[in-house]
Amino acid sequence: MSSVLSIFKLVKAPVYSHCFSQDKSLLAITCENTCLVYRLPPANSVTSSTTPQLVATLANHDKTVTAVDISVHGRIVTCSQDRNAYVWEPLSDGSYKPTLVLLRINRAATCVSWAPSGYKFAVGSSARIIAVCYYEQENNWWVSKHIKKPIKSTVQCLAWHSNGVVLASGGTDGYLRLFSGFIKGLDSKEAVANSPWGAKFPFGALVREYYHGAYIEDVQWRSAIEKVAFVSHEGSLNVVDSQDQLQSVNAPDGLPFNSLCWVSDAEILCAGFSCHPVLFAADATGAWAFARDLDKAGGAAPAPVANEDLDESEDANSGFGISALRKFKQLDLKGKVSTDAQESAHENTITQLKPYVEEQGRVTAVSASGLDGKVVLYRL
Amino acid sequence: MSALYNIGTATKQTINKFRISTGRAEAIKGLSIKIDPKTYEIIVPEDEQEELDDMTELSELAEIMPDNSPRFLLLAYPMTNKDGIKQTPLVLLYWKPSTVVSQEWKMMYAGALEMVRNECGTYKLVEVSSGLEDDSDVDELIEQIESSK
After folding, report:
1. Average pLDDT for residues B86-97, to the nearest whole number?
2. Contact A139 B101 (CB under 8 A)
3. Are A120 and A133 contacting, i.e. CB atoms less than 8 angstroms apart?
4. Is residue B67 less than 8 Å (CB to CB) from chain A?
5. Closest Cβ opposite residue B133 in set A141, A146, A184
6. What sequence ranges are listed for the domain ADF-H (chain B) (predicted)?
């Protein structure tokens, strides 16, 4: 009935980024200067009373950790405003060994993403550079190669295509760009041989560029159908395909989204400043439109009889939970504030959405981290 | 001569052949010289050389040259100097990108620099430490090569 599967109240600080390990047994969140790793029971046994167990605190950064990602091998990479990234290798006793990665950037790192193979990762930064880092076997060191042109401003989001070569990036210069992250020795030319985006590109080559205008907050690939979707700061969701066809939908309440997640080939879930996830769907012709809200505040509350005549004037306010007007009217009428109206699970902006349970190509549960220090699991 | 590095006669012959054959070349030609990390022998790597033979522009160097190891590159760069005379001077490029992590390798190549310079007989040496990541780096390199001897 309720779309909220579980609420984890983890920390008292904003969680800017979170990530699950591949088997969903570990949850890593960023918390100020550290990254906290929790253990969870398997996905199908998580209930509303599950409490994650803290198993490791990764504390090596000097400034706020901005992003965390876990590779398919279980390695954790964290990047921070201190211009560094650390790769944390899991040891057999459950602790993690950090390895510093010299990114060679002179501004904060903003986002990080492992390539699907787990042997390289890309870091976006405010230094107008994307650093693609891979492990040098001969020297026992992580090397970072830069993609600079033609990025003109902070890179806010990165996403690897499933072929591990094409890298989508969006930032505050309003452009969505697709770059080649091809590393000689790590990637093979066969991976891109039949790609509709192009066949041969050296490292750092610009494959596609789309001007959007507003800050691009998040970008995600749907590699199977060769489409990439992004959400931007003027409150829209956009989907582009390899033929450069772009479609745009606006957020229903006008508030921009911070993150998105492909649910299936024709459904995308977005979340952001409205504190609840919103589902968009494409119809048979491929046109995207708003489908439904999940866990919207002030939604399914049965109105008490005494408040019937007040309802019309407050219809417009129902989208934002208990409005101040209703609150004082109820306080005046009944001596207490009615708690019948539902609050949304997140009390503050949602910062990142990640798929949690996936069955037969369709995501049936997602996780969302927010500025209120909670990670909430939603059921679709 | 330092007893640490040695140049085989085959390598010397390859270098000589390169110097002679590119005297009247129309396109940019490069010869890659590397030091074997185990034997400290100065050799010409075959696989890089093949890719270099296909090179048409300096900006392609960034892709062909390794970004974790230094190299010496003997370059024949055809240009028209300010008097209008067509020349193809030989320039020795010391490829030392910032992505090289091994200090040992950096020192190994630095030590062999003079020896390779003598062997190639070039007057001009240009150090490339940017890894040619940016277009402006390539322009800078061209400027350095073309500035009069």
Report:
1. 84
2. yes
3. yes
4. yes
5. A146
6. 2-146
Is A379 an 8 Å CB contact of chain B?
Answer: no
For position B148, what pLDDT does the model report?
Answer: 53
β-sheet bridge partners, residue B106: none
A92 interface with B at CB cutoff 8 Å: no
* Residue among A136, A149, A203 minimizing CB distance to B135: A149
Nearest CA in chain B to A204: B133
- Nearest chain A CA: its distance from B128 CA (Å): 16
Q: What's the CATH code, domain B2-146?
A: 3.40.20.10
Distance of alpha carbon A205 from alpha carbon A179, whole angstroms: 6
> Rounded to an integer, what distance in angstroms lies between the CA atom of residue A63 and that of residue A98?
16
Q: How far is CA A340 from the centre of its chain?
A: 31
Which residues of chain A are under the pLDDT cut of 70? Answer: 1-2, 298-322, 335-342
For the stretch A92-132, pLDDT in tens is 988 999 999 989 899 999 999 999 999 999 999 999 999 99
Q: How far apart (Å, rounded) are the C-alpha atoms in residues A101 and A79?
A: 9
> Is residue B74 classed as helix, strand or coil in its secondary structure?
strand
Count of A–B CB contacts within 8 Å? 27
Give pTM, 2 decimals.
0.82
Q: Other C-beta atoms within 10 Å of B106: how many?
A: 14
Beta bridge partners of A143: A134
B12-42 pLDDT, tens digit per residue, is 888 888 888 887 777 888 888 888 888 888 8
Ordered DSSP codes for A232-296: ETTTEEEEEETT--EEEEE-TTSPPEEEEEEEETTEEEEEETTSS-EEEEE-TT--EEEEEESS-
CB B67 to CB A143 under 8 A? Answer: yes
Sheet holding A246-250, edge to edge: A216-222, A227-232, A236-241, A246-250
Nearest CA in chain A to B99: A143
